[in-house]
Amino acid sequence: MAEPANRRMEAVRRHLLLLPPPLPPLRSNPLRSHAEVEPSPVIVGGMVLDIHAKPSVPPQPGTTVPGMVKYVRGGVARNIAECMSKLGTRPFMISVVGNDMAGDLLLKYWRSAGLCTEGILQVHDVATPVVSNVFDSNGELVAGVASVGAVEKFLIPSWIYRFHHRISNASLVMLDANLPAESLEAACIMAYKSGVPVLFEPVSVVKSQRIAPIAKYVTCTSPNEIELVAMANSLSPTVKYNFQKMEQCKDKTEAVECLFEMLRPAMFFLLEKGIKLLVVTLGSNGVFICCKEHTNFMKDQHKCKQTPFSRQLVQKLDGCFPSNNLVKLSRESSSRTCVFHLPAISASVISLTGAGDCLVGGVLSALCGGLDIIPSVAVGVAIAKASVESEANIPDDISAASVADDAKGVLLSAKTLWCK
């Protein structure tokens, strides 16, 4: 039988206090005092070196073919943090790398970008997480191998607890599901007790199920269709939810309605389990935003810090969607369940690997910059479009004017699917 919530919280608390410290970082800065720490988003999860292989001719079993192989800075949490930094938001990263070529490469970029490395543990005799991917000529993933054991072995509660002052003072906390279950729970409890909103990024179908013990602490999560269903099933002891792509829904409008009917039971069930906001990514069909009550994601508005990038977004997006009243409606839905649809933007696809992470990074950066939830998701959709048109996971140059124009188009085409 599962432990009652209060006993589990107490067990995690004891775990935090009694665990011996992990191996000391090879390179670290002294912890700053609480008074010196400014509110900033905290991102906890994997930093990964991606190896991308893209053949120039169809691959042949048992032999090599010509093509392009390159190193790309990756990892869900790392990608999201980098995306936020390129949008003017300065996240604090808690992660781990090895003392090897891959770890040095990832840290070198972090320092060159002027980002804090205080929360990044670098240890001897540990392989930095590496993922090797093979793509087809269209940029779709064909096969991949992931070696990310360092995250589960070293991103343990005692390391995360060292940055309790960062988490308790954060504008928001984002956790990726690569973290071990005890670390997810420890970080959630720290944020929850300080009233800090938590976003859970599912990462994969299997790892998305790690939400089960922490759902009551999670403010928002950002699954795709199959991750959404897996999360719902992990929390449901009896009813099982299903998702099957319906080929008969050829028309875009009809496809969105079909998806909503299929996913609605799982979405509503997760809201009943305590999650306040769902941002469900649908690939070329856009995004569903689902909330049971209006969620003021940034509870402490003084922690919002407008940047030059977000200022341009606010100026360009303000008042551009009065016809559908989406923001007004979401603010008034205190006792209703509402679902909104935001369409995707047509793009010339080069690589899809960073699109989901850029969407989340765009959403979180916009929220930290003072935008409401629905405009923030529209910004995320616009950043995802820029990502798929880039070879890198995170585009090198992101134009605020271009993002604002794309987000404006998304908002003008957005629709309310359900509000009862």
Automatic annotation (TrEMBL):
Example GO molecular function: metal ion binding
Record's keyword terms, sorted: Kinase, Metal-binding, Transferase
Lineage, highest ranks first: Eukaryota, Viridiplantae, Streptophyta, Embryophyta, Tracheophyta
Ranges where the Carbohydrate kinase PfkB domain occurs: 62-299, 335-392
PROSITE patterns assigned: PFKB_KINASES_1 (PS00583)
Annotated InterPro entries: Carboh/pur_kinase_PfkB_CS, PfkB_dom, Ribo/fructo_kinase, Ribokinase-like
Name of the protein in question: Carbohydrate kinase PfkB domain-containing protein
Pfam families: PfkB (PF00294)
Organism the protein comes from: Urochloa decumbens
Family membership: Belongs to the carbohydrate kinase PfkB family.
